[in-house]
Amino acid sequence: MTAPLRNAEAILHCAGCAGRNHGVCGSLSDRTLARVAQRARTISVAANDRLCEEDVSCHHIALVQSGMLRMQSHSLAGRRKITGLVVPGDSIGQIIRGTRDTAIEAVIDTRLCLFESANFAQLIEQEPELRRALCHQAENWTEKARRLSLLLGAYGPASRLRALLLLAPSIMPWKALPDGGGVLTMLLPRQDIADLIATTQETVSRSLHQFQKDGLIDILNARQFRLNDLEALSEGLEEILHQ
Amino acid sequence: MTAPLRNAEAILHCAGCAGRNHGVCGSLSDRTLARVAQRARTISVAANDRLCEEDVSCHHIALVQSGMLRMQSHSLAGRRKITGLVVPGDSIGQIIRGTRDTAIEAVIDTRLCLFESANFAQLIEQEPELRRALCHQAENWTEKARRLSLLLGAYGPASRLRALLLLAPSIMPWKALPDGGGVLTMLLPRQDIADLIATTQETVSRSLHQFQKDGLIDILNARQFRLNDLEALSEGLEEILHQ
DNA sequence: CGCATTGTTGATCTATGTCAAGGACCGTGG
DNA sequence: CCACGGTCCTTGACATAGATCAACAATGCG
């Protein structure tokens, strides 16, 4: 009897995965997860490497184990826009896809579960659970993209930065403190922050220091912020942040 | 034998529908379409009426027959942002959903096919074709939302307006002219245009008149533009427009 | 210890948002 | 038919947020 063994192996494979409890993987039962894991091959992408050139997202499907990816496009004027972040548990290749004009790059070192496209398609047919998870993810992505456009359209750069700070704890290292605040480790460099919220490095830097002056945050170092007053930070942003 | 008759009725029901060849409906076979149509009830929404208050999108699913809807949110600062347009063939209630902070309103008089949610869910289970069509639509919406955020983030108001003018012919009345240009009937009033591309009425107006000065368009009247030079109009926007 | 990368700060300039007024258009009712 | 009010659009004057350009500081790495 090899199947139970393979199941066990598969579950072991997922045990330490940062994506195990999020997104697609998070909504799968052990049984389904085991079937999925059996077909997976793990690959790594170093920070700032591009995924498309790895041929992923062209003929493969991938699930993010750990790390973070950015989807980005360049306008002909040379301006880069990050249109979304891909985090552990997210899938790449179905809904999220690098195309001629949308590249997917690693923000930090990232590990992926890689699947042959045909192989995965088969799985989708066989596992309604997986199908539903992917559909659900599709809805999520639409919702996220819509919120980003709302954020960009309805608020100025400083408010957009506040929104980012408030959303970051759910996708970046976050150490909650007893007083309700917490320490955020910002994985994105200033330029990425700027390209995500559609502003410039300089404005990001100035706004952060303004927040510090206002007592909203403390800049512990370039990549670590202590968020002191989540309440004040979220002023006027309710409809973006909820959920 | 009643089934064939009902099929025929159903197909008749769809025959004149503007959405018949687009979006969800466009990718369904006559057989599936007939099954879907059998469960539909047609309703109308007058221009500027809100769909949620009609209880649609809460306990119903709808397919757009004709007209146009806008999805919109208000920031607390009072600024409205249109996050997407819903056109014939699109579905409402699955992916696209009015929520506490996203309202769906009619831009112009609109007709919908309305379904009981439970009823429709059943259909989805039974018809893989429909399932695929809805999934495909989900991908489309994500792609559209992503493009909107790219447009908002990477380009200024004037470029965004150019992009809108170039995309409009696919969803608004358009009369192509032999010289390659054409006459566009803009269904959106200035304020809606502004809220879609995240600028102000005034800037929209000024930009349009600037385009006229530059010979790119002629403003025949407030709602009709002759687009003279699609080439020049699309300068620098390639990655937004393709497809 | 250079050197490269990343982040900060200052000075300047302009696109565009805001405010305010006026014009065009349309339907209604006298 | 015209006067009226309403909605939608246009135009002008003005102020300013934030982009741009440029220099410099901090950090990390070989």
From TrEMBL, chains A, B:
Q: Which InterPro entries does UniProt cross-reference here? A: cNMP-bd_dom, cNMP-bd_dom_sf, Env_Response_Regulators, HTH_CRP, RmlC-like_jellyroll, WH-like_DNA-bd_sf, WH_DNA-bd_sf
Quote the SMART domains the UniProt record gives. Answer: HTH_CRP
Q: Which UniProt keywords apply?
A: DNA-binding, Transcription, Transcription regulation
Pfam families in alphabetical order = cNMP_binding (PF00027), HTH_Crp_2 (PF13545)
Gene3D superfamilies hit by this protein: Jelly Rolls, Winged helix-like DNA-binding domain superfamily/Winged helix DNA-binding domain
Q: Which domain of life is it from?
A: Bacteria
- Residues forming the HTH crp-type domain are 155-231
What is this protein called in UniProt? HTH crp-type domain-containing protein
